[in-house]
Design a protein that fits this description.
The chain is α/β, with parallel strands linked by helices. It has three domains: 3-80, Nucleic acid-binding proteins (OB fold (Dihydrolipoamide Acetyltransferase, E2P)); 86-245, Rossmann fold; 265-349, Probable gtpase engc, domain 3 (Ribonucleotide Reductase Protein R1, domain 1), CATH 1.10.40. It is 37% helix and 24% strand. The chain is built from nine helices and 15 strands. The protein has helices at residues 3-12, 45-50, 120-133, 150-160, 200-208, 247-264, 266-272, 289-295, 301-348; strands at 17-25, 30-34, 37-43, 63-68, 74-80, 86-91, 97-103, 107-113, 136-142, 166-168, 189-193, 218-221, 227-230, 234-236, 242-244. A hairpin with a 2-residue loop joins strand 2 and strand 3 (37-43). Helix 3 (120-133) crosses helix 6. The radius of gyration is 24 Å and the shape is flat. The structure holds guanosine-5'-diphosphate and zinc ion. Residues 142-143, 145-146, 170-172, 194, 196-202 line the site of guanosine-5'-diphosphate (GDP).
């Protein structure tokens, strides 16, 4: 918590309120870190009522004003303090709305693996996302132990990331990790973005000092008294920094790459236009222009593999979204028909 935040809090909220931070969002309640304890808090009716969109509701990483009940680790969230930075994505539904997946992040580590082809365009998109969030990006080039031409690669990345620190690390061999320490100072909040497989979980394990911290499931009681298993989305690191790693953060890359996939893989998209079949999967169909580009050495097989992988991931997200959109649509119509019934009842009187 900064002095600035604290004075803002004191100015805006009267005595009896406490400043806490959202660690986890349940369906009807929130886990709030407050004075070294974790409180289970609900939302004040006024706050819920006045919220126009989801961005008006608390998100992981938010600083909130809480009214606690004496003698209990429970409270009511009365307000959200202004966000210094936020990562958001478009949520599914009949109206697209902003869903905040992490708030008040100081540093976002953009993780890219050095054993893959360096995709500078992708790094540029991640940088854009980081700048838009209001937090400061730091580029981590992971798996440095597998890198060839390390210096040349760092130079290439530095050229598209002007003014942004570029740090090569290897979790496996303990290389370069010390350079991350300044961003992990007490009170700082960090998060990670990057494609799957680049080594984010390995970095998280290194940061936390535990194996599998984030998949470690904790049984707890939710607000309805049911036992649920969840993982922590905000983690206090041994050095005093806070790590935010929400599922939404993990998925954010896919959302942003949706429009970028065509652009990033424009070479493959162009070859694919020459394929005999429009729905060619570029596996072994006759007349596949992508395969012939590969056999002529114009295109690498790896690039095709990562293109397909990205497309698969996108399709998966789309399916998930579809289901969610359908459910919300159903709820929407249910509400409307309830309203209509309500109105017609009144008219009959
Ligand atoms: P995530 O999907 O981004 O969370 O990536 P993971 O942390 O699960 O790592 C993906 C794979 O890369 C795993 O098999 C790791 O063991 C491996 N990996 C992670 N860090 C390093 C590293 O520094 N060097 C090497 N050689 N492999 C690594
Ligand atoms: Zn093809």
């Amino acid at each position: 918590m900064t002095a600035e935040l604290n004075s803002l809090f004191i100015e805006k909220y009267p005595d009896g309120f406490k400043l806490g931070r959202v660690a986890l969002e349940h369906k009807h309640s929130y886990r709030i870190w407050l004075e070294d304890r974790e409180y289970l808090c609900t939302l004040a009716g006024k706050l819920a009522f006045e919220a126009v969109g989801r961005e008006d509701l608390p998100a992981v990483g938010d600083w909130v004003a809480v009214q606690t009940s004496p003698g209990e680790l429970k409270g009511v969230i009365k307000g959200i303090l202004p966000r210094k930075s936020k990562f958001s994505r478009k949520a599914a539904g009949h109206v697209t709305e902003e869903q905040i997946v992490a708030a008040n992040v100081d540093t976002v580590f953009i993780v890219n693996s050095l054993n893959d082809d360096l995709n500078l365009r992708r790094i540029e998109r991640y940088l854009l996302l980081a700048w838009e969030s209001g937090s400061n990006p730091v580029i981590i080039l992971s798996k440095a132990d597998l890198a060839t031409d390390l210096d040349a690669k760092i130079d290439q990345v530095a050229a598209v990331a002007i003014g942004v620190p570029v740090i090569a690390v290897s979790v496996l061999e303990g290389m370069g990790l010390q350079e991350l320490q300044p961003y992990l100072a007490p009170g700082k909040t960090v998060t990670l973005i990057g494609s799957s497989g680049v080594g984010k979980s390995s970095l998280v394990n290194y940061f936390t000092g535990y194996e599998k911290q984030l998949v470690q499931e904790i049984r707890e009681t939710d607000d309805k008294g049911k036992h649920t298993t969840t993982h922590r989305e905000m983690v206090l690191l041994p050095g005093g920094a806070i790590l935010i790693d929400t599922p939404g953060m993990r998925e954010i890359q896919l959302w942003t790459s949706e429009e970028g996939i065509k652009e990033s893989f424009s070479d493959i998209e162009e070859y694919a236009e020459g394929c005999k079949f429009r729905d060619c999967s570029h596996l072994n169909e006759p007349g596949c222009a992508v395969r012939s580009a590969i056999s002529e050495g114009l295109l690498s097989e790896n690039r095709l593999v990562s293109y397909k992988k990205l497309q698969k991931e996108l399709a998966y997200i789309d399916r998930k979204l579809d289901k969610k959109a359908q459910a919300e649509e159903k709820k929407h119509w249910k509400n409307i028909s309830k309203e209509v019934r309500h109105h017609s009842k009144h008219k009959q009187k």
